[in-house]
Design a protein that fits this description.
With 316 residues, the chain is α+β, with helices and mostly antiparallel strands. It has two domains: 112 residues, Beta-Lactamase; 185 residues, 2-Layer Sandwich (Beta-Lactamase). It is 44% helix and 25% strand.
Length: 316
């Protein structure tokens, strides 16, 4: 009898361990107020490591309640039928008060009660945000290259490149590409589809230098400049009064370089809250700057050839 009890305890411990460490997120909620009975590590990672167990969904995850997740769960409880969602959009509040958009494959499965205990609803799924973003990245990147090869206007191509970042971002990034003028001293507007037009106009023609905001400094140094708070960073002392009224609080700028390390321009990622870049942000920077270098370099070479042909024709 003791051996059998010990074996049951071991099995229970193993199941508990498997549940906690499963790669997919899992939780169990109890109707009618959808109290969270258990949640595994992946679920806690998804929602930001908040204290959840023992709390109703509306209290523990109020953003889920606002998005109607409670209505779906209550519908499952009433009908006894499972709900399945693919790439379901979900907005998640982070500990710093910011919001992040995610895509999840999810199943809400009613679980019958036993031994007089009421049943619950088992939540199981996977965060597929990165898979969908990577797929979108590949498609959008191919589109940019097609535009460049098809001799689309440079601003059109660069705008599409920026939209790759903006459409796959989960933090509301606003992208901008500035081009280094032929004098090598000033930055000119390249593309900025979502930045306020007044702001883009104000920085068009700004001079580069050792303390010239994020972009002017990045172009001057030929190195990335990450400013997490425009309001307090000394690099923005002369420019913060231009940016802050438009709600721009962070700006990370990376020079767009040729293989020979010649600066062609800058790519900037603006945010409306102070924040530091993540690994994914840096991956997107690499993608954009490398592709932008190819597109801009090609455009400049094409213009140089056109000028040469025109001069030769004039001499003839």
């Amino acid at each position: 009898m003791l051996d059998q009890t010990s074996a049951c305890e071991n099995d229970h411990g193993l199941l508990q361990l498997l549940f906690e460490r499963a790669p997919g997120f899992m939780a169990l909620v109890d109707p009618p107020d959808l109290t969270i009975r258990i949640a595994n590590e992946a679920f806690l990672d998804l929602v930001g490591r908040r204290a959840l167990v023992g709390k109703p969904l509306a209290e523990a995850l109020p953003e889920f309640d606002v998005q109607g997740i409670d209505d779906i769960l209550n519908g499952v409880a009433r009908s006894g039928q499972a709900f399945v969602g693919y790439a379901m959009p979900l907005t998640i509040e982070r500990p710093d008060g910011s919001f992040e958009d995610a895509l999840v494959d999810v199943v809400f499965q009613p679980v019958p009660g036993s031994n007089g205990q009421p049943g619950g609803i088992f939540i199981q799924g996977h965060n597929v945000t990165e898979d969908r973003r990577n797929e979108a990245l590949r498609t959008a990147h191919s589109r940019v290259l097609e535009l460049a090869i098809g001799d689309a206007p440079l601003e059109t191509t660069l705008t599409e490149l920026i939209r790759i970042v903006e459409s796959t971002s989960s933090t509301g990034v606003l992208g901008s590409i500035l081009l280094l003028d032929f004098d090598g001293k000033h930055l000119r507007h390249g593309a900025a589809p979502t930045l306020p037009p007044e702001y883009s106009a104000a920085i068009d023609g700004a001079e580069i230098g050792a303390c010239a905001g994020s972009c002017g400094t990045a172009a001057y140094l030929g190195a990335a400049v990450f400013v997490s708070d425009i309001a307090t960073d000394p690099l923005w002392a002369d420019y913060k009064d231009i940016a802050l009224p438009h709600g721009l609080r962070a700006c990370w700028s990376t020079p767009i370089l040729t293989r020979g390390r010649k600066v062609l321009g800058t790519f900037a990622m603006y945010h409306r809250q102070p924040r530091e870049p993540t690994v994914r942000d840096l991956m997107l920077v690499d993608l954009v700057t490398q592709t932008a270098a190819l597109v801009i370099d090609r455009e400049q070479a094409k213009r140089a050839l056109q000028t040469l042909f025109a001069e030769e024709a004039a001499e003839a």
